[in-house]
Design goal:
alpha/beta, seven-stranded mixed beta sheet
């Protein structure tokens, strides 16, 4: 999903030129970042993700964005290389988040920024129906991925974000929870619905073949809810830290 307008406002105000994006994945925000900053390097540990057709389409649309196969726990860059490190919706995939952000601190220049955004664990009653679908999608994706032995973890609470960032050396400049739906996502509503429903169908087929049909009913129920209601990014935390 695209960057939220609140995120654009924060990122566009940063005095930063050379950027590192952690967990660049399929390149969903690569193009947006390359339009904001002079030069962006993305790291992604799963090469099969980077070389998928979907990823290559996204990365081909960028102008000043390079992708590197690497793990956040051991970044292949010299000390004091970047002006800002961005972790956008990837924290919940880190097995060792403290190691990732300690490495982020190392490769940042003095006074460089850490921009962290990720879904937050708050009561579902504070979410819109579309946001709740995204929150539930994450929960069920974690369950399926953990069955497969993949690194995928439940969302953190706000106090956990503070602990991780401060304990890896950063000073927190700003922290806020964004609960408003992204108005820019209206344009992509049908694409989102199709994309998430396709993923849920593939997960259901996989679980049936694996003999783990107990989770299939949950997958199908969520798929139906997304088809009927839609899906928007769930509430998330933004943390701006500085070295």
């Amino acid at each position: 999903m695209s960057l939220h307008p609140v995120e654009h406002k924060i990122l566009e105000q940063l005095d930063a030129a050379k950027i590192l994006e952690l967990g660049a994945g399929r390149g969903y925000i690569a193009c947006e970042l390359s339009q904001i900053f002079d030069y962006v390097v993305g790291v992604e540990p799963e090469t099969k993700v980077v070389f998928s057709d979907e990823s290559q389409k996204h990365y081909s649309e960028t102008e000043n964005f390079d992708i590197v196969a690497a793990y956040g726990e051991g970044l292949p860059f010299d000390n004091s290389t970047f002006d800002c490190v961005i972790s956008h919706w990837s924290l919940h995939h880190y097995t060792y988040p403290y190691a990732v952000f300690a490495e982020s601190y190392r490769v940042l220049k003095n006074n460089g920024y850490l921009y962290l955004a990720d879904g937050v664990d708050i009561p579902q009653k504070q979410m819109t129906p579309k946001q709740r679908n995204h929150f539930l999608f994450h929960e069920i994706a974690v369950s399926v991925d953990r069955i497969d032995g993949k690194n995928h973890f439940p969302l953190y609470r706000q106090k956990d974000f503070i602990k991780i960032v401060e304990n890896t050396g950063f000073k927190i400049k700003n922290i806020e929870i964004i609960t408003d739906e992204n108005p820019d996502d209206i344009e992509y509503e049908q694409d989102y619905i199709k994309s998430y429903c396709d993923i849920l169908q593939k997960l259901a087929d996989k679980m049936i073949k694996s003999g783990k049909s107990s989770i299939v009913e949950r997958l199908n129920e969520l798929k139906k809810s997304i088809e009927n209601t839609g899906i928007r990014i769930s509430p998330f935390v933004i943390v701006l830290g500085q070295k």
